[in-house]
Amino acid sequence: MTPQPVEAADALSRWMNTVASDVTAFTGDVTELLARNLGGRDKVDQDSLLGLEQLSREFLAGHPFAVGAGAIFSSAVIEKQQGVLEWWSRTKPGVVEKLEFDLAPGGERFYDYEKLPFFTTAAATGQQTLWGPYLDYLGADDYILTHTNPFFVGGRFMGVAGCDIKVQELETAFMPILRSIPGDAAVVNASGRVIVGNSGKYLVGERVKPDSAGELRLDLNVPHLGLSLLCQK
Amino acid sequence: METPTSFQLQIYRSLPEVERADAIVNRITKAIALGMLKVGERLPTEAALSEMFGVAGATLREALADLREQGIVETRRGRSGGTFIVKQPSTPDGAMRAWFLATSIAEIRDIGDEHSAIAAAAARLACERAEAHDIERLQDLARGTALAPSPEVCARADSRFHIEVAVTAQSPRLTNAEIRLQAETGHLLWAPLATKFDPERAAAEHLALVRAIAEDRSSEAQQLALDHIRRNVHHLIDTKLTLGYAEEKQEGK
């Protein structure tokens, strides 16, 4: 094997680990804010969310690759009957707006976030997770990946915090690295779908059939995300 | 210069100033009917709407006045004011009847042709790209038509299912095309005008399509999508013929 794929896998892992540690730091800030705002109360209400917008806006300002950021709460810790999804999105260059969701169960456009994998996986494993690429219909309405971390106050699961990354941004970031590999190569998610490919052989979104004998799969060294680099032997 | 062909004329066709307010009313009404905008939601500001639609302020205000008259939106003053959607519009039977009478069979077939292209491609790509979570969502939505208490709800459930297949295909363009096609014909399919369309059968066909997508049987999924659209088109044509025939009889009296 030529050294390129291994070097490329290292470079990709470094990039994703930087994202992961920044999302972890953001989640830490969110946790601290919530703990302070709650001051021992056990249910989240509008006052407990003060300052979250500022944190999310700062994260977006400091991370141009992220298109959305915020926190989502478990219905178990919410005062009201309705979900709480505090998410800000860069709708245009330089413009950050709060995303509006239909959070009324049974509503026409009900955004049932507690069933979405970026929530369920983080809740079930207690670890960071990456979901996508997916078309976030009724949410950001964009083709994105969502990177989340669960967060806990006083040992209790509160929800997840994290960011959205546009598929196009990852393409820009990963392509130079993937182009350094001779032959077809792609970054593949935990369920075996292509995130970015360096040729028409691996198209974003498509499942890679596991039967190809000439292929080599290198796991990226990024905890819990299940990412791998696929290339030719 | 040579005379443009009929396709080229599409490029140069005039932009009807007087119909622009109607077009805005139409867009917003369809968006609410499809569930893209919902009751209680606030529309963007008048300035933002004029800019996005590319119309003069007077044209936009004319459109909003029309929507207010129909009771679909309400404008509130004050700090938390704005124009809010207050009612789910129902396309009056008269308007749907008029559509069937004015639209030729050739045009209905052509809508079906475009829809077949979009739906078959979406079904094929969904096979290649769906994850377990997507399948669960599609299964829930597939039954929607059978559970709907009224034709309007049924039409919305049907539209939502087809849009979600395109979402599962992960193509923003196919999704946009599917949304546009659903806005055009979704409500007409379930219009209680002539013979009733069977919601149970639609649900069964949706579920069969979801199974094919779940099991990555792409040629079967495409075929199921094509058969489903063909049956829809036949129903639209039947409705047209029934209404047209009834009108002729009345005229002959």
UniProtKB/TrEMBL annotation, chain B:
The keyword Transcription regulation applies. It holds the Pfam family GntR. PROSITE patterns: HTH_GNTR (PS50949). Keywords: DNA-binding, Transcription, Transcription regulation. It comes from Arthrobacter humicola. Coiled coil: none annotated. SUPFAM superfamilies: GntR ligand-binding domain-like, Winged helix' DNA-binding domain. Residues 18-88 form the HTH gntR-type domain. This is GntR family transcriptional regulator.
